[in-house]
Amino acid sequence: MNFDQMKETLLAAAKRAGLQEYEIYAMSERSVSTETLRHEISSFSLSESGGISFRCIVDGRMGYASTELLTEAEMEALVDRAMDNAKSIESEDEVFIYHGSEYYEAVNAPVEPIPDAATLKACALLLEQSAYEAHPSVSDGTQAGALAFECETLLCNSHGLELHNRVGSSGVYIDAVVKQDDESVSAFEVAKGGDADALRALATCAVDGARAKLKASRVPSGATDCVISGRQMRSMLSAFWSMFSAEMVQHGMSLLKGRVGEAIAASCVTITDDPRRAECPIQTSFDGEGVATYRKSVIEDGVLKTYLYDLKTAKKDGVVSTGNGQRGSYTSPVSIAPYCFCLEAGTTSLGDMLAAVGEGLYITELKGIHAGADAVTGDFSLEAAGFRVREGKIAEPVKTFTVAGNFLELLRGIEAVSDKVAFGYPITAFASADVLVRGVSVAGE
Amino acid sequence: MILEKKLLEQVLAVAQSTGADFAEVYAERTLNDSVHLLDKKIDQISNNVISGAGIRAFLGTRTVYASTSDLSREGLLRCAADVAAAIGEGREQVSIRLGERMFPNIHPAVRISSSVAGSVKTDLLKAACFAAIEYDDAITQVTGTLVGVDHTIQIANSEGLLTTDRHIRTRIAVSAIASDGNENQSGFYGPGRGMGLEMFDFIDPREVGKTAAAQAMVNLRADYCPAGQMTVAIENGFGGVIFHEACGHSLEATSVAIGNSEMAGKLGQKIANEKVTAIDDGTIPGAWGSVNIDDEGNPTQRNVLIENGVLKNYMIDRLGSRRMGMPMTGNSRRQSYAYEPTSRMTNTYIDNGPDKNEDIIASIEYGLYAKRMGGGSVDPLTGAFNFSVSEGYIVRNGEICEAVRGASLIGTGTQILGDIDMVGQNLERGQGMCGSSSGSVPTDVGQPLIRVARMTVVGRS
Question: Which residues of chain A neighbour B388 with C-beta distances below 8 Å?
């Protein structure tokens, strides 16, 4: 794909149209993935895609258009479409094409080349084989996979700003199915990859995880002291992070309106967003508007420090952008999103937290997050599974119970945070340590 | 025609040149346009052109898929060569001759969004959103989207098929937030059709807005739903999401063919009450989940999945067909060329049954009436599902009483199928976007009012 040539055509068309302020955002992506089934490679996929977005300001309004059809005629049409779209916008919010930040701190993530097909396939097969070897109850339906991607982003605009980012990464996953006495359960593990020993360890972890769920029982209903695992707390953050988006706050869709500086969580809670963290899936030194990115605390020791801002919302609140105006892809407009939104580790070990619970639950699965959690109201009611905690230790597995509450009440009720963060690398931008919460509303038998 | 016939023949020949027993090209050009309203003003308008192709090869039940947005001759031949290199090692001379085949267009569109003036679309969206804003003073925020999709596909395969289709769809969605100063509650309604803006000849945009606002208001005044085991009546339309999540996904070849479904191996067995007949029908004219042909070029069909409680069929794509030794059912779907297709639902619903709706409510001594459902999810391996009730009421002594909020319903597919003991007569469908391994595709869910004898209701009190 010849972006440079398309860029020149677009810039020329924009000038001819008499535009003063405009921006080109282009992205190209290459990915490879493979999956196993019953000791064979069952699928192998390669994908190459790319496209260009053009946006421009006409009479103070921003219009967008994008295309994957990279021809000269289409570039001309793209400018016309974006201008047309701008003319129908009614919102009077001030919009910006950015002049550029003073300093862009380089990202420190190495760009890994995409491995060859044979390496990727061997990796997936070894992972699946290791799962079968880990225990005789592992059964058909077990699948392993390996994937790798690289992505290039280009942003240039009428103020002469020109930025470029390239990221590349890879990962492996195993979905281990265990069958015993007519009961089937599965467990999923994902990791960045690694050598044969690391793959075997990952497979064993998935198989052990699945086996531990066998013969799960129900739990009684009532207020229950719980440790919520870092993985599940990370899912909660993915469902509720938009409360911290300035866009949601300014439009009355967040319960956090007017609460910066207030203690909204327990003092042991600190939540950061760090675009340069090693575990951040897409490290970048600039956001979708060209603003430099940086690490910030959203909640520090329980106190709400800032919302996440792009240029438009920052202007409205009289602050500067936090560099969170992202473009999910060239087809999406700028919208606020985090990079690596993390409930940071505390000082208590998981063992000490379980001991502090004494009798209660260790929640290791929350299902239906996209349907059972509402970021506008903060309410959640979710199906859960996990383990009974008896005498301060993990005991028998439990399933098909539900936990319900409000996210802000949950943050306020956190009594302790564990010393280990569960990152979702390479697949999610959320991370969390385990948390201890007392009196969670649990509905079981 | 997106790609020339001769080029397609060459691309297929290259894809098959190392021994693949089947090859397929799927080319796409889609224009998505959308208008968005926030704070009483149109704040975003965008249109995106999606253009590319996916090439797939089979060797038995092994598949290789490659996609590219580069539709040049060189780009496509390189992509086909990548597929060939990944699927086999031999070298064969392959010659493909394509014969064009057109299927009847049973979903004709008249007023296609991309060729209608922008002001027509903004007026429709404003009519819907302002109806919500004006519904009650407690409605503090309304957002709305009007989306038009103009999707042209071309499919060619090594069996000689060459066909094209154009599919138009339109959807309007309104979200309303009601607030009493202390807390927020939300309401949503989003009808869509497999047609152009003529959809609004029989869907009044103002009713869409009012429906979303009314739901937010009901929830604002409702108490939390009690939790526990109870009898649940689930209303028609989007209530059908229960069957979609609890059973539909478990009937897709994607999970059945590899044994990862609780429905695998149960054909001919009684899996539900005899009042339950369930159908997946991609041929309903102008429906949101309908298409003329599926994404492997097979015409869609009306598949009876469960008849009077007996499991009759699965939803099967080409790979599933090979794995299961059963015929394809016109259910292969994908979000775009970037996704390898797999078996998916189209318009899936429980058919009308023998019970009168009033008898269903009257039969409940104490339970929950789920008037509107939100979304949900399922683990096909265990059939465990959960979904949220977006508007619910307590039923006491056969009468619908006070509204309750924050309820979710959980259970497993086999269990709920057995526990549906009354099926009413007001079948309607509702629209949603269904996510799975081949991306997000439009699907209708549907049912008449049904009664589930016993269900776990998740609540907060």
Answer: 368, 371-372, 381
List chain B residues with CB under 8 Å of A366: none
Mean pLDDT over B29-56 rounds to 95
Closest CA to A189 of A206, A201, A213: A206
The whole-angstrom separation of Cα A281 and Cα B64 is 26
Residues of chain B with Cβ-Cβ distance to A246 below 8 Å are none
ipTM, 2 decimals?
A: 0.88
B184: nearest CB among A93, A184, A377: A377
Q: Could you report the per-residue pLDDT of B107-122, keeping only the tens digit for each?
A: 999 999 988 989 999 9
Q: At residue B80, does pLDDT exceed 90?
A: yes
Which residue in A has a C-alpha nearest to residue B143's C-alpha?
A251
Sort A223 into a burial class: Cβ within 10 Å, 0-12 / 13-18 / 19+: exposed
Q: Give B-chain residues touching A64 at CB under 8 angstroms.
A: 44-46
pLDDT digits (tens, 9 = 90+) for A97-116: 999 999 999 887 777 788 88
Of the partner residues B49, B338, B408, the one whose CB lies closest to the CB of residue A381 = B408
pLDDT > 90 fraction of chain B, expressed in percent and rounded: 84
Angle between helices A196-212 and A117-134 (to 10 degrees): 40
Average pLDDT over residues B122-147: 97
In chain B, where the domains are located? 228-458
Beta-carbon contacts of residue A327 (< 8 Å; ≥ 6 apart)? A25, A27, A53, A288, A333, A334
Write out chain B residues lying below 8 Å of A48, CB-based. Answer: 66-70, 79
Taking only the tens place, the pLDDT of each residue in B233-242 is: 999 999 999 8
Contact status, residue A107 vs residue A163, Cβ threshold 8 Å: no
B59 and chain A in contact, CB less than 8 A: no
| Among the listed residues B62, B10, B5, the one whose alpha carbon sits nearest the alpha carbon of residue B340 | B62
Task: Give the predicted TM-score (pTM) of the model.
Answer: 0.91
Cα-Cα-Cα-Cα dihedral sign, residues A385, A388, A433, A199? negative
Write the CA distances from B98 to B5, B341, B458, integer angstroms: 7, 21, 56
The residues spanned by each domain of chain A are 3-207, 216-445
Q: Which residue type is seen at B171?
A: R
Contact B48 A331 (CB under 8 A): yes
User: How far, in Å, are A297, A300, A443, B16, B89 from residue B92 at the CA level?
Assistant: 61, 65, 62, 8, 10
Least CA distance to B85: which residue of chain A? A117
**A119-128, A155-164, A367-376, B100-109: lowest mean pLDDT where?**
A367-376
- Residue with more model confidence, B386 or B292: B292
A141 at interface of B, judged by CB pairs closer than 8 A: yes
pLDDT at residue A1 above 60? no
In Å, how far from its chain's centre is CA B392?
Answer: 23
Give the closest-approach CA distance of B355 to chain A in angstroms: 30
CATH architecture of A3-207: 2-Layer Sandwich (3.30)
pLDDT at A374 over 60: yes
* Angstrom distance (rounded) from CA A336 to CA A310: 6
Q: Is B102 on the interface with A (CB under 8 A)?
A: no
Substitution target in B31, B46, B114 with the highest count of A β-carbons within 10 Å is B46
Q: Which positions in chain B touch A381 (Cβ < 8 Å)?
A: 388, 406-408, 458-460
- Highest mean pLDDT of the ranges A98-102, A188-192, B254-258: A98-102
Measured between beta carbons, which residues in chain B are less than 8 angstroms from residue A443?
A: 227-228, 456, 458-459
Location of structure tokens 């943050």: A411
The answer to whether B406 contacts chain A (CB < 8 Å) is yes
Cα dihedral across residues B346, B348, B351, B357: positive or negative: negative
* Shortest distance, CA A394 to any CA of chain B (angstroms): 24
Structure tokens given for A391: 């005498």
Mean pLDDT within B131-159: 97
